[in-house]
Amino acid sequence: MADAVVGIVMGSDSDWPLVKKACETLDKFGVSYETRVISAHRTPDVAIEYSKTAESRGLKVIIAAAGGAAHLGGVLAAATVLPVIGIPVAGGALNGLDALYATVQMPSGVPVATVAVGSAGPTNAALLAVQILGTADAGLREKFRAHKEELRAKVAAANDRIHQA
After folding, report:
1. Taking the domains of the chain in order of start, what are their residue ranges?
2. Handedness of CA 150, 155, 158, 164 (dihedral sign)
3. I need a surface site. Which of 8, 32, 42, 93 has the fewest CB within 10 A?
4. Residue 32 and residue 6: Cα distance in Å, rounded?
């Protein structure tokens, strides 16, 4: 997508079923994105080049999904000034705990915002990207405000349902 403002990078195509939720969320807000499979370990040169050129290609936020050692977010963050949001992907012997630790244990000066392991992670990563973009886009900020109101309405309806029984 030529006009992408969010780059979504995953370490493996096996992450796609999970990462697709981030795409669906960005679609809901009308935010353009691009998706790539890039491995921090198997194609580090590609990861660094992607990150180095992200800003000049119009990206404003990068979302990085990776499991296991989960160095993708950190590698991307090291080579850009753009905000990077890490999605630790569950799997392997530690069921995502290793990916969570790797994503949140960044050294001082190389931040990677980190969302939840599991199904909430991609949605929250996309929502965080929308909030970041919304700081400079009043229309997007209003869409996010409406989203928050939808959440409030759902909770109010749930409360009403349990008191009608």
Report:
1. 6-137
2. negative
3. 93
4. 7
Tell me the C-alpha to C-alpha distance, in Å, between residue 35 and each of 9, 97, 102, 119. Answer: 6, 24, 22, 18
Distance CA 63, CA 11 (A): 11
> What is the arithmetic mean of pLDDT over 53-72?
96
Q: What is the pLDDT of residues 117-136, one digit of tens each?
A: 989 999 999 999 999 999 99
Structure tokens at 92: 């392997």
pLDDT, mean of residues 55-70: 95
Supply 69's token pair: 């050692």
Output the pLDDT for position 1.
46
Query: What torsion, rounded to 10 degrees, do the Cα atoms 32, 40, 69, 11 define?
Result: 40
Question: What pLDDT, on the 0 to 100 scale, is given for residue 91?
Answer: 87
Instruction: Give me the CATH topology for the region 6-137.
Output: Rossmann fold (3.40.50)
C-alpha 26 chain-centroid distance: 10
Burial (CB < 10 A; 0-12, 13-18, 19+), residue 7, is buried
Residue 165 pLDDT more than 80? Answer: no
Distance CA(98)–CA(142), nearest Å, equals 37
